[in-house]
Fold these 2 entries.
Entry 1:
Amino acid sequence: MSQTITIDPVTRLEGHGKITIQLDGAGEVASAHFHVTQVRGFERFSEGRPFYEMPGLMARVCGICPVSHLIASAKACEAIMSVRIPPTAAQLRRMLNLAQMVQSHALSFFYLASPDLLLGMEADPAVRNVLGLAAANPALGRAGIGLRRFGQHIIELLGDKRVHPGWVVPGGVTEPLSAAKRDQILAMLPEAYANLALATDAYKQIAGQFKAEVEVFANFPSSYMSLVHEDDSIEFTDGTLRLVDAEGKTIEDGITANRFAEAIGEAVEPYSYTKFPYYKPLGYPQGCYRVGPLARLNIVKSMGTPKAEKELAEFKQLADGPVASSFYYHHARLVEMLYGLEKIEEILADPHILDKHVRATAGVNREEGAGHAEAPRGVLHHHYKVDEDGKITWANLVIATGQNNHAMNRGVMQAAKAYVQDGRFTEGGLNRIEAVVRTFDPCLSCSTHAFGQMPLAVEIVSAAGEVVDRVVRD
Amino acid sequence: MRNSARIRCLILACGNPLRADDGVGPCLAAWAEERFRGEPDVRVIARQQWGPELAQEIAHAECVLFVDSSLQSRAGAVAAADIGPSPSVGNWTHHLGAAELLALSRQLYDSLPQRAILLTVGVSSMAMDEELSEAVRAAIPEARAQIERFVLSQRAALAASPLAQ
């Protein structure tokens, strides 16, 4: 008799999803899927809107990474306008994007992942949460809150709002940076560095306890894709895309936003509202790849800032070639946060950072435009077409989480085979299967969109389709 | 960051103004912001949801008034009750309740406000709408009066306290 195990909803994620595990008659895992159960619809209801409204509209896709949508959308609009934004505006956007990366990574590492890492995968689910973390290690809890507030406060200073700031517009940003705000951000940096050092030390002390998880947490060869700077260092806001194979060899380099659709296709599967992007020359699913912190660190040759450079060198010692286990997304986030702090400090030292010229203007000069940026979870692509009046006639968004969709599903399958045997599983085993998905920090409200509560349940279904067991979390 | 100065009264509102009556918290917060403008011992924060970061704000407050909507109460009913820390939390760590925030403040910062009150306004609709229902609109004056009384009484109590600076 075959069975299906359903984890619904998967907890401690951004958004709503579930996992099903189909067992065969012998109780072994026959298939496993991560389902995104929301639907977004932003592409459709943006049709008919003036293109210059798009950044503000698209930022509403997500409350965690609205800045990435703002930037990718503004860049797509600038392609339509055929303008190059002032250098100071580009630097200010970069700082805003890095601030968002820091706060988002802090949320993922401290609030969502750390309960597993610090309390253990087998810990009582009643305490395996942010309050349990606070009780077990208050200093780490304070560090997490401090880093998240650091990023949020920069976003609020620059964009006037912590969530959905409207400061980034087609052509640049609406207001220059003031000396007072610059000094406020600089004053916050020492505490942010200290908080991050505490977290990094804590992670390195406990990471060795998770060797078994490292082996089965989406640990397989794959391609990786991310933006890279022209000097081969990490890049979050500009640059071009590079795709590398499982050995780290470049498959294709210099993919601009305008060429994205030539290189990347989107497959669909019946069990998910999120698409499955893939590299067209390799086809689907062979052309699927991973994005986000692990991919970025596997691809870049350097971080471009001194402290993060040392951490990157240590990270690259984890494997001979690309680091394949998705467990190390957690480690990669810590390295990227350090880069973010250093880069923000560097940007603020730029003698032109207070320049007043921060916006270029133009009308519709092209009927199509695309833009991309690195969101915390990976590269984000916006592509629009407009009519002669600048009204949107077509839009497509390729979201970071979607680009990890295939890898998350493979990871769930791999972990299910490790933790479900002979039809039996433990709560800790199911938590590990969820934790595989958490390593990617998927943003399901970005990759698709809906209202309401996120459910989580595990169902065991017989070969005849009868549910024989179900675990539900509300 | 604004977290070093101790705040006497923190008014912490929750709600989404795009979800009809759920916007009553932010609506009351906007009023309180104006009512206590220029009074540095009162701080007003409105959020669509309460996240763990707010534990730090609570740790620096001498008294806290949580303002939220309630689906359990009769539409338009205004209720205020003392609330204490509770460590229970669901699986959703993006947003916490008032009791959980107090627990987090105690665990992380070893600090609790001298008094914490949860003021709720019963709601009838949380549909997609920017307007409050008639019942909730009618309850606004009473809710404002309770907020004002809370702040003034806490000021008086704190001023009379031997610990008052």
Entry 2:
Amino acid sequence: MQRITIGESTFSCQPNETVLETLLRENIKVPHGCRQGLCQACQMRSLDNSPPTSSQVGLKDTLQKQHYFLACLCHPEQDMTVALPNQQGASIEARVVSKQLLSPDIVQLILEYQSPFSFFAGQFVNLKRPDGLTRSYSIANIPLAKNILEFHIRRLPNGQFSSWVYDEVALDAQLSISEAQGACHYLPGRAEQPLMLVGTGSGLAPLYGIIADALAQDHSGPIHLFHGSRDINGLYFIDEMRKLAAEFDNFHYTPCLSGEDIDSEYLRGRADDLALSSTETLSGWRVFLCGHPEMINQAKKTAFMKGASINDIYTDAFHVFQVEK
Amino acid sequence: MSESQETASTQTLYEQLGGEAAVDAAVDIFYRKVLSDYRINRFFDNSDMEQQAAKQKAFLTMAFGGPNNYNGTDMRNAHAHLVKMGLNASHFDAVMEHLGATLTELNVPPELIAQAAAIAESTRKDVLGK
């Protein structure tokens, strides 16, 4: 009989029972719906062993890789330790080792950690300052020998956390970091596939990581990055991107500005419009969209209608935290 | 060989259509048709396209005669809010149209399309809450 551990509790799975049935029988609250693997409401994550592949049907490849599964389809083959998607594992401590302005609106923060930590470039973590204020930011670097994490933080008007990072954070400041989350990252395996990456503002952060990851893993297909902002203050890493494009034949970079009075060295228009109309079809492409939630909703549908498979579209929407009045 | 002949004659509709791989190929085509059809796209909430695609896949798997847990009551409940929004026979017909066109696009032989259409048609009353 297989045993299911969730949080502090361990339960036995009865013969023929799914993980969902076991947990519900034991009065554990697990969101669920159709119980036949369609609505994906009962998504959970295995923290130790790989879940049975039959319980991962229909999930995005990046989520499968992170051992997500559907509890209603999962007849465990071995003991499992599981967690709900919103259940956070232990966080780790990190300290600021570098802080640098990338543009008037965006600061680069580099943190160093000591404890073991695994992530994919493009995933996000919750950064928590000592008094508990917490915000999510995307990781802009690939895992390296050095234990560092890079973030690009845009200053928001009245943004409590971003203003604090801008005005107060100094070297050696301590922050705690949640587990890495999110399904918007690169996976090797289809090296010749063309990639289309569209980001607005600090949406470049995850894309920068994803591009570095793809290049480090010898992605051979063309990689097209369209980075957009309303005005020049929202664009950054322009020289770095141009340098990268000069170094790698298959990497193409297009900075875009959608506001008025645009310098002719930038393409004029919204990055998503320009990106998605730059190619006749997106059939067979892998598409990454990061940044403004509205842009993502629109662009996701457009990319799909232009031929990208729904499973090949990866998104990371930057929702602005609304302070309750 | 007699053995392969026997296999061919006992193949289910789902196997003849190509199983899960065929469903996967059909989902994107079918969903694109539905989303671009002004007659019905308001019924397909596209705020979560992955979930929506998962549901289309379940529908197609069933229509293909594949493994499913079809349950008339669930189908009624799932569509009840759409019936309130005005879902009627003309919209069901439009979906049937797209199912046929999708399979035609995938070069499925007409007699198999007819079988799949008959299965899909059998859900009409439940979907429309009749």
